[in-house]
Write a structure and sequence with these properties.
The protein is mainly alpha-helical and about 200 residues long. It is built from 11 helices and no strands. The protein is elongated and about 60 Å long. The protein has helices spanning about 5-10, 10-25, 35-40, 45, 55-75, 85-95, 105-115, 115-140, 145-165, 170-185, 190-200.
Length: about 200
């Protein structure tokens, strides 16, 4: 292998990470091949070793978002739990752990979807999948379909509000506040044991 050529073209992950950073910081309009090459100090032709065109890069970015955010959130809803509060604390993990849910990426995708109808369709499908997953969580813990739907909307739209309003909180204060959110979403005061396990995961 010619290591010099490898260095000149970088790697697929390198190009994708640079595109992610540019999307989050400046929006999809800024994600251009030449701009990425300049950012990485690589040859523009290096991009085409890994992507057929800019559309292929876009597809990879969207797939990353779907896996990182929607996939992880759905998985969190399906973690076995003895009660609804424990189940909701599992979902709250996503909001506190950026490796489980990337809030800046979610906002960037929502902004991108405003100018891309096909992405808006993907976003709507992702939101429906998230709502269904949370509603399923509530139904498994004894809530009626109607109750589950309203509570899932309250939970998801609260987090969308956090993201879109750029809410910044002291981490310790937000951790302590999560138990109140769980109480609001479920109508049940969580036990000290469930809350302590949640806090231990984020210590």
């Amino acid at each position: 292998m010619n290591t010099s050529h490898t260095r000149q073209r970088g790697s697929k992950e390198l190009w994708l990470n640079a595109a992610y950073e540019m999307l989050v910081s400046s929006g999809i309009e800024a994600v251009k091949v030449m701009a990425l090459a300049k950012k990485l100090n690589l040859s523009r032709t290096g991009f085409y070793w890994f992507f057929d065109d800019l559309g292929a890069l876009h597809a990879e970015m969207i797939a990353l978002w779907e896996h990182r955010n929607t996939g992880n959130l759905v998985a969190a809803c399906q973690v076995p739990a003895e009660n609804v509060c424990e189940a909701l604390f599992n979902v709250m993990d996503c909001w506190l752990d950026p490796t489980l849910f990337d809030a800046p990426l979610d906002l960037a995708i929502r902004n991108w979807a405003r100018v891309d109808a096909s992405l808006q369709d993907r976003l709507s499908a992702a939101d429906a999948r998230r709502l269904d997953a949370v509603a399923g969580l509530f139904q498994r813990h004894g809530f009626t379909p109607e109750q589950a739907e309203a509570r899932s909307m309250t939970l998801i739209y609260t987090q969308v509000g956090y993201i879109s309003m750029y809410v910044e909180e002291d981490r310790k204060e937000r951790l302590l506040r999560v138990q109140r959110y769980v109480e609001v979403f479920s109508g049940i005061v969580p036990s000290h044991e469930d809350f302590d396990r949640f806090l231990a995961r984020h210590a």
